[in-house]
């Protein structure tokens, strides 16, 4: 922000969105305040410009800075203009300069019928939300232990504390969790198996489609030792046997991946006796082919991560159980807040987003009312907040 022209452009631009990126202490907030004042100078009313800050303290500080600027304007202005700045300063009390949570609460109270809310709802602060969430989840788990096999299995495997932490984490980020769950079809096991099958197919395609694979197998098929017990000969036959499985498109992917791993374990190029092969040159060629196959392990891996075991099955089962319990816990937490006629910060944002998304008349009214939106610390906004702002 060292370029004064960039500052002035950010303040004066009206036709395009502006994004200021600069380090701490470089004057971004000053530019935000100056842009706010510039909009008022252009004739915007204080209720037509939304300014979103990261904290309530920042919102209060911004109002103070705007008031100070108004005082400066009044001292320098003629009588008529002085009256206008005095009115602007007075109206700052109702200006939408606030955190995103306060802005959302205002929308929900104004459009409470559309949002299906009591306009007198309370707002839980972060400490109150954490306390209520902890209490609700603890009581929920104890109740579900008497009703749900899934909860009993979760607690038996993970422990009461870990299950509580997991549910509180999911509930704290429920909008993002709900998006993910909505995008997923079927159980975790089904999704994981589909992803695993795709990864197995990709590995096999890369291996069998490589020139090193084709060339090395051609060499191994072309030569053999005179002694079936020669170590290289034993490895050669094993490699070819496993390669036949790897190349067999009719075999299940897990079998082919397992064969790939077994093949690599036989790739020991420094064995074999010259006298048991047609010539030293032939043995050298076979060793080189085995070495080339072994080098594919460094490029593609041995596929061990694509062979699920009992722990993977258990993880899939527990994940499905946790997701099922999350849905029930979500309702329990909502019910606890309804009994208190209160919303938490996440509710404010989710319900405001839903209000704007699902009610075109509300969205249109807000678009007519708010001509400009200024956001301080935009890098700290999440996807939900961006949906509301945009």
Your description of this structure?
This protein is mainly alpha-helical. It is 69% helix and 4% strand. It has helices spanning 4-12, 28-41, 56-76, 79-91, 100-110, 112-115, 126-144, 149-158, 160-172, 174-183, 188-208, 211-222, 231-246, 253-265, 280-300, 310-339, 345-358, 360-369, 383-389; strands at 49-53, 97-99, 122-123, 342-343, 372-375. The strands form two sheets. The chain has a three-stranded parallel beta sheet. Strands 3-4 form a two-stranded parallel sheet. α8 (149-158) crosses α16. The longest helix has 30 residues, at 310-339. The radius of gyration is 33 Å and the shape is elongated. The relative contact order is 0.13. The mean pLDDT is 91.
Secondary structure tally: strands: 5
What is the structural class?
Answer: mainly alpha
The value of Rg in angstroms is 33 Å
Q: Give the ordered list of helices and strands.
A: HHEHHEHHEHHHHHHHHHHEHHEH
The strand order across the widest sheet is: 2-1-5
Largest sheet: 3 strands, parallel
The average pLDDT is 91
């Amino acid at each position: 922000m060292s370029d004064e022209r960039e500052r002035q452009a950010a303040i004066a631009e009206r036709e395009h969105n502006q994004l200021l990126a600069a380090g701490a202490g470089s004057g971004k907030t000053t530019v935000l305040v100056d842009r706010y004042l510039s909009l008022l100078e252009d004739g915007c009313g204080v209720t037509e410009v939304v300014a979103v800050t990261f904290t309530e303290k920042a919102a209060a500080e911004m109002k103070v800075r705007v008031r100070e600027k108004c005082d400066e304007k009044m001292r320098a202005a003629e009588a008529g203009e002085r009256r206008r700045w005095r009115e602007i300063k007075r109206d700052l009390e109702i200006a939408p300069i606030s955190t995103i949570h306060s802005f959302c609460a205002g929308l929900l109270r104004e459009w409470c019928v559309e949002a299906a809310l009591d306009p007198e709802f309370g707002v839980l602060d972060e400490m109150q939300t954490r306390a209520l969430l902890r209490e609700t989840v603890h009581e929920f788990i104890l109740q579900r232990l008497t009703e749900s096999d899934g909860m009993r299995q979760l607690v038996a495997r993970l422990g009461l504390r870990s299950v509580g932490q997991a549910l509180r984490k999911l509930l704290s980020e429920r909008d993002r969790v709900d998006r993910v769950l909505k995008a997923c079809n079927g159980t975790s096991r089904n999704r994981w198996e589909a992803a695993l099958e795709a990864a197995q197919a990709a590995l096999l395609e890369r291996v069998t489609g490589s020139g090193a694979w084709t060339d090395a197998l051609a060499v191994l098929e072309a030569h053999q030792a005179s002694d079936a017990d020669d170590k290289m000969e034993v490895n050669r036959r094993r490699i070819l046997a496993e390669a036949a499985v790897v190349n067999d498109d009719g075999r299940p992917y897990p079998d082919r991946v397992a064969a790939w791993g077994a093949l690599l374990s036989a790739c020991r190029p420094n064995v074999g006796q010259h006298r048991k092969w047609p010539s030293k040159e032939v043995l050298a060629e076979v060793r080189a082919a085995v070495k080339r196959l072994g080098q594919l392990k460094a490029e593609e891996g041995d596929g061990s991560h694509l062979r699920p075991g009992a722990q993977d099955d258990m993880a899939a089962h527990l994940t499905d159980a946790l997701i099922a319990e999350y849905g029930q816990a979500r309702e329990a937490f909502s019910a606890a807040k309804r009994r208190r006629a209160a919303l938490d910060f996440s509710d404010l944002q989710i319900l405001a987003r839903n209000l704007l998304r699902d009610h075109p008349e509300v969205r249109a009214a807000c678009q007519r009312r708010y001509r400009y939106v200024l956001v301080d610390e935009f890098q700290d906004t999440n996807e939900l907040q961006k949906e509301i702002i945009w």
